[in-house]
Design goal:
nine-stranded mixed beta sheet; globular; alpha+beta
Length: about 120
C-alpha cells in the first residue's frame, strides 16, 4: 500500500482539458454520470480523472496515495509538519478520500477503497 493510485486534473474548462489530453497523449475519456463535469481517463497507465473545478477554484493537479487508515496517516502527517484539509469524505464506490498539505503547502490526496487495503 501507500502507492500512488489515482491522479486528477481540474481546471476552469473540463471539456478543453479533456480535449487537450486526448489529443496530446491519445487518452480516452469516460464521462461519469452526475452533476460534476468529470471523466475517468483510460490509457494513462494509472487511474485518473479530468474535469472542471468548482466555484472559484482555479484548478489543480492532485495525486492520490492509497492508504489503509486515512485517520492514522493524517495524524502522522500532522506530527511531521503537514496539515489536514478537512475530514475524510466518502466516495461513491464506498471508499474515502482526504486531502492534506505537506510542509511546503503542496496539496496531496489520500484514498482508501473501503476494503482495508
Amino acid at each position: 500500500m501507500n502507492n500512488v493510485v489515482f491522479f486528477e486534473v481540474l481546471g476552469k474548462d473540463g471539456a478543453d482539458l479533456r480535449a487537450f489530453y486526448e489529443a496530446a497523449f491519445g487518452w480516452k475519456m469516460s464521462p461519469i454520470p452526475g452533476p460534476m463535469d468529470y471523466s475517468l481517463v483510460e490509457g494513462a497507465g494509472l487511474r485518473g480523472g479530468i474535469g472542471s473545478a468548482s466555484g472559484d477554484d482555479p484548478g489543480r493537479t492532485t495525486f492520490y496515495i492509497g492508504v489503509v487508515d486515512i485517520e492514522a496517516i493524517l495524524q502522522k502527517i500532522e506530527s511531521l509538519g503537514g496539515s489536514r484539509l478537512g475530514p475524510p469524505r466518502p466516495t461513491p464506490d464506498g471508499g474515502q478520500i482526504a486531502f492534506f498539505k505537506d510542509p511546503e503547502s503542496h496539496i496531496v490526496g489520500l484514498f482508501n477503497n473501503g476494503s482495508g487495503s
